[in-house]
Amino acid sequence: MAAPEHPVLETHGLTIRFGGHLAVNAVSCAFRPGTLTAIVGPNGAGKTTYFNLISGQLKATSGHVSLFGEDITPLSTPQRTHRGIGRAFQLTNLFPRLTVLENVRLAVQSRAHLGRNLWSMWGRHVELIERAEHCLHRVALADRRRVIASALPHGDQRKLEVAILLALEPEVFMFDEPTAGMSVDEVPVILELIEHIKAQGDKTVLLVEHKMDVVRSLADRIIVLHQGELVADGEPAAVIASPIVQEAYLGVAGDT
């Protein structure tokens, strides 16, 4: 199959400066459908900042972001979400006083462009309720559907955020250390879900992750950031074996 005319997502010279500090420095990268790209690097490398620039949480000092060949740099975070960029864990806000199911219902309703009135629409849209239930099954939270979101333990809150992301049906899935804070038993649920999204073949997945066993098992490609610059980009085996990664970037704990 021929490659698409445009990558799904592309950054061009993406840069952000905080005072005199270049947190992300002229990063250009393209991401195609059906691929999972892991973004690695030491503490403070700029990984999460790069995510924030793509999702619109931060405004770039220079450079731009393209989605399906269209410049989306001027768009807000909600506008980018509606265009197809989905960000788990740091953009998704739970409604703490609503139940697990109600949180996902709102996301399904938003995706169906039915507004945000939780109480007026659902009797006429059984199929949307079923979609919300399906998302909860996929993250193993169906049995907690009636629990208030604020009462969930941290690991389950992360799973709920993934369920909300699934309900939004994005074209680009962005996961920032998705298994952090989860128990050993919970981790496989999320990793299998990410693997399934990748296997669909029509979605683009970006993953910030420090656990190299996770990176090795999921990634088609690794890019390495250091001091805000892109210093390596390629197939996992080649990048992992490169001296720059071996010496400085693997096995470093913490976050950006």
Describe this structure in words.
- The chain has nine helices and ten strands.
- It is an alpha/beta fold and 256 residues long.
- It folds into two domains: 1-84 and 171-256, 3-Layer(aba) Sandwich (Rossmann fold); 94-169, no CATH class.
- Strand 4 and strand 5 form a beta hairpin.
- Helix 3 crosses helix 4 (126-138).
- The longest helix has 15 residues, at 154-168.
- Mean pLDDT is 86; it is low at 251-255.
Output the keywords:
34% helix, globular, alpha/beta, Rossmann fold, 2 domains, single chain, disordered C terminus
Low-confidence stretches: 251-255
How does the helix and strand content classify structurally? alpha/beta
The counted number of beta strands is 10
Oligomer: single chain
Per CATH, the architecture of the largest domain is 3-Layer(aba) Sandwich
Residue-averaged pLDDT: 86
Write the CATH fold name of the largest domain: Rossmann fold
- How many individual domains? 2
CATH class of the largest domain: Alpha Beta
Order of the strands making up the biggest sheet: 6-7-8-3-9-10
> Sheet bearing the most strands, described?
6 strands, mixed
Radius of gyration: 18 Å
Order of helices and strands: EEEHEEHEHHHEHEHEEHH
Q: What percent of residues adopt helix (DSSP H or I)?
A: 25-40%
Outline: globular
Strand content: 15-25%
Looking at CATH, the homologous superfamily of the largest domain is: P-loop containing nucleotide triphosphate hydrolases
Could you give the distance between the termini?
Answer: 37 Å
